[in-house]
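Thread: quick sanity check before group meeting

JM: Hey all, I'm pulling together slides for Thursday and realized we never actually wrote out the predicted structure for the chain we discussed last week. Dropping the sequence here so it's in one place. If anyone has concerns about the input, flag it before I start.
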Amino acid sequence: MRKFINYLKECYVELVKKTSWPTWDKLQSSALLVMVTTVILAAVLWVIDFAFQHLMTAIYTL
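JM (edit): ok, ran it. Output follows.
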């Protein structure tokens, strides 16, 4: 049990004193970048899916 308590204390010290947390502005810009990238990737995948769907439809109707 003593090892577990020591582990929790070390985790707390590392999170509070040794971890560098991003600023609020940096966090917002990173989140915005992730959202924009996700939307762009979704649009690209939709175009690819649309193209393959029509391509396969054209091949199977021959």
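AS: nice. The chain has a mean pLDDT of 96. The longest helix spans residues 24-60.
JM: adding both to the slides.
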